[in-house]
Structures are given as C-alpha cells and as structure tokens.
Design a protein that fits this description.
heterodimer, A: 250 residues, alpha/beta, Glutaconate Coenzyme A-transferase, 7 helices, B: alpha/beta, ten-stranded mixed sheet, 5 helices, 3-oxoacid_CoA-transf_A (chain A), transferase (chain A)
C-alpha cells in the first residue's frame, strides 16, 4: 500500500495541542509545506521539539511563533529567529529549560530507540545550579556512575514527526542530500506518526538500498514538497534578504 | 571560510585594525596545521581569513560535516549544503557528512582539536560564559552547541573584547553569568591581551597589543594574572 498522501490527509493527524517534532537545523532542511499548512490552518497550542527555533526573518517556523501557535518550545536555543525570541521575552512562549544541542538530539534518539533516557555529562555544575530554570517543578535528576556525575535525561517522544528529505518512494524510503540528514531519521522514529516531505517522489527501486537515510517502515506518510529547484530559490532568496548571499543582477 | 581563498591585506596600519580583526588575527595563530577546527559565530568565524598561507585544516560544522569550504556564489548555493548557522557553504575535496548525533559525539568525545568561541565573560579559573544573559527576567538566548564544544574539545580558545561598553573588564575574577563550560578555556584572546589559563586555574599574561605594557593590561583587567617570562607583543600575522 502506497504511503504517498495528499498534504491535507497527512497533516490531518495534527490537531490543536499536538506534540510535534520537526526536522531542521536553524531552518535548514525543514518541511516547508507542512509548516505552511500549520500556519494556514492556525493549529495552535502546540508543543514543539526542535534542535533550534529555525531561521530568522519571516522564514518557515518563524511564522508559527509570530502567530502564537506554539505554546511550549523544547530546544537548545530560543533566539535563532526574532519571532521566537520576541514571543519568549513577552512571556508568550514557554521554555522550561534549555538543553545543550547534543543533549536534545540524544533525548530524541532515546525516544527513537525505545530507551527510557540517556546519561549526559555536559552541563554538570552549570545547568543544575539552583534558580537557573524557575519553571522546573523539580531539580534536574543526576546520577553518579564510575565516579562521574551525569544528568539523567529522559527520552523525548511526540505525537507527530514532520521531517524533510530529498526523495522518497511509496514504501516510505527516504534519501537525503549532503548536510540535510541531520537527526531526521531519529525524529521520524520518535513519534507515533511520521510524515516526510520530499522534493521528489520516485518509483520503488530508484533509491539504492545503501542510500536510504530513513527506512520505509519508520515513515507513515510521504507528501510532495517543493521541487529541489523551488527549494533552492526559496533558500537563496531568503539568504539574499538576510545578507548571507549577494543579490543577483536581474 | 577557506584560508586558500582569503585575501590578506598588505601590511595594514596597526592603529587602524578593528578590535574584531585583532582578535581574529591572533586566534588564527592558535590553530595548527592539520587540526580539526570548529569556529563559533561572529569574531571566531573571521579567524579562517587569517590562517597562514598553505596551512591545511579541516573545518567541522555541528550539523554534521567535516571539510567545508568558502561561501559559494549566489547561484551555486545549494539549500542542502549548509553550516551550523544555516549559511550556504561548499564541500571541499575530502569532505564528509555524518548524522547529527555523530557530529555531537565527535564534539563531546575529543575528536575536535580546537574551537574558537565568542564569550560574554571569562574568568581566571578558565570558565567561559556565552549562552545566557538576563533579559526581561528570563535567561536568554540558549546554548545551542556551545556547551557540547566546551565539554569535549581539546583546546578551547575564548575570543572576546577586553572591556564592555561601560568600560568594565570582561576578564573577571569570577564570572557572574551562567557558564557555558567550567575550567575549559586554554587561551583567552582579547583585543588587548593574550592569557594562558593554567591547568589548575589562574592566568598568565603572554602577550599584549603592540605598545601596551603589563601595567596597561592590569589597569583594564579585573582578573589576577601572572606575567610570562617571555611576555611580548601580540602576534598578529602582519
């Protein structure tokens, strides 16, 4: 049975109050069409788990914070977009604690791999300082193991994962290009329902087995996103707007 | 980002160097040939412009890449080839990509030789603070990957201006901000001075900006420090 679906059908799994994980790294390789769908349908009260809030300047996930659709952010940072930074400083976006990015990634991986959590030494003596995170009901849990102290970091899971690949087949096998793989496979595995948005949907057998970045069984829905050419234009134009690339003469 | 494509200004006047350029130039002298290097954003990124000609290093990006190169021309920019700040980069011959968790494993587990990180404050124990300031009653903006770097990279170089806008020293006896890394800094590079941090804590003044003496540095530094026997002018690669 093909996993290829219309965007509306796949995104129907997301509702007000959903707990979402979105693949991305400061906005790179994020599922643009899925995020636009959330913005258009004004799905609110979301808990969002992501490595960072996204790319600044009115790009992608930034619109979610600007419209007040995200209630809580679980991440390593709050200010890679001005929209998330403004919402947080105006008390309209809850961040209970900040995690080192490697810790967020390992919490997601634990959720993906069926583990209860992980032991992380990063931030000991820093993130456990009293008063640093007043929103936390209890202090961060720690454990001594072989003479060294670690945080006990619980696994993270979500209702729905939104990830972004280059191309996928109807079995849900996903291939990535270059630096876009990130932790998208872990994210797909850490949610009850995983939607992948891709530039191209290809016949089964097109993607070489050793190039599959997310195996099909981890994916529930494949949706058509921007073509690669559209995606390149989309990012280049925003990078020009941010001054990260030089404008092109018409 | 690639030393090979950078343009080195021909003998610029010392007095006309900006604080950012001074710091970036001096940080470049900390990098050794063949090292795996992670540069933080801001001043540290500029360091790559001042690496000596012919030096070959491997740049690491947190999002999962060894061996990236300079920014591409606009129409060559590929939306799937980006660095840790979501800026377009290029991949040099020999580059490799890896999953994000592998990249952070490399950071925690000593596979990165050196990192240059910007800082809000440093102190004489080798503590580095760069992820949190108080804004509107909240700690802001978050560590990103900086705590992972401070935890596991072999040599952490702190890059910052010596004094803040109010004229106060950013090289403290004891940092008052939430830390990014505890006792992690090996070298502090400012626009005025270079300090080594002793393994057991404590600073040694190694260099000062040309024309400045030990007492000039003492006057603008809150931290206590010793003076190296071979104390001399800052190496700026000019």
């Amino acid at each position: 049975m093909s996993k290829v679906m219309q965007l509306d059908d796949a995104m129907g799994r997301v509702s007000r109050g959903s707990r979402l994980m979105i693949g991305e790294f400061v906005g790179a390789a994020e599922p643009t069409k899925c995020i636009e769908w959330l913005v258009e349908h004004e799905v609110g009260d979301l808990t969002l788990i992501a490595l960072t809030p996204g790319m600044t300047g009115g790009f992608g996930k930034g619109h979610l914070y600007a419209k007040g659709l995200v209630k809580e952010l679980i991440s390593s940072h709050v200010a890679t977009t001005t929209e998330s930074s403004d919402a947080y400083l105006a008390d309209k976006l809850l961040v209970r604690q900040f995690y080192p990015m490697g810790t967020v990634a390992e919490k997601v991986r634990a959720g993906a791999m069926g583990l209860g959590g992980v032991l992380v030494p990063v931030g000991i003596g820093i993130l456990d300082q009293p008063g640093l995170f007043p929103e936390l009901a209890e202090p961060k849990q720690k454990i001594m193991l072989n003479g060294k102290e670690y945080f006990v970091e619980e696994a993270l899971r979500a209702d729905v994962a939104l990830v972004k690949g280059w191309r996928a087949d109807e079995l849900g096998n996903v291939e990535f290009r270059y630096t876009s793989a990130q932790n998208q496979c872990d994210i797909a595995m850490a949610a009850d329902y995983a939607i992948v948005e891709v530039n191209e949907i290809v016949p089964v057998g097109t993607i070489p087995p050793d190039r599959v970045g997310i195996p099909g069984p981890f994916i529930d829905a494949v949706v058509q996103g921007q073509t690669l050419a559209e995606q390149n234009d989309h990012y280049r134009n925003h990078w020009i707007k941010l001054g990260r690339l030089a404008p092109v003469a018409p | 980002m690639d030393a090979k494509v950078s343009v080195r200004p021909a003998s610029p006047d010392l007095a006309r160097l900006s604080p950012r350029e001074i710091i970036a130039r001096r940080c470049a002298a900390e990098v050794k040939d063949g090292e795996v290097v992670n540069l933080g954003f801001g001043i540290p990124t500029l360091t790559s412009n001042y690496l000596p000609k012919g030096m070959s290093v491997i740049f690491h990006a947190e999002n999962g890449c060894f061996g990236f190169g300079a920014k591409p021309a606009t129409l060559d920019a590929d939306s799937d080839i980006t660095n840790a700040g979501c800026e377009p980069i290029t991949l040099l011959p020999g580059a490799c990509v890896m999953p994000l968790t592998t990249s952070f494993g490399a950071m925690r587990n000593g596979f990165i030789d050196i990192t240059v990180l910007g800082a809000l404050e440093v102190d004489q124990e080798g503590n580095l603070a760069n992820w949190a300031a108080k804004r509107n009653g909240h700690w802001w903006p978050g560590p990103g990957g900086a705590m992972d770097l401070c935890y596991g990279v072999k040599r952490v170089i702190a890059a910052l201006q010596h004094i803040d806008k109010a004229g106060d020293s950013k090289v403290k006896r004891r940092s008052t901000l939430p830390l990014t890394g505890t006792r992690c800094i090996k070298v502090i590079v400012t626009d005025k001075a270079v300090f080594d941090v002793k393994p057991e804590g404590g600073l040694i003044l190694r260099e000062a900006f040309p024309g400045l003496g030990v007492e000039d540095i003492r006057a603008i530094t809150e931290a206590d420090f010793e003076v190296a026997p071979d104390f001399g002018p800052m190496r700026l690669g000019l």
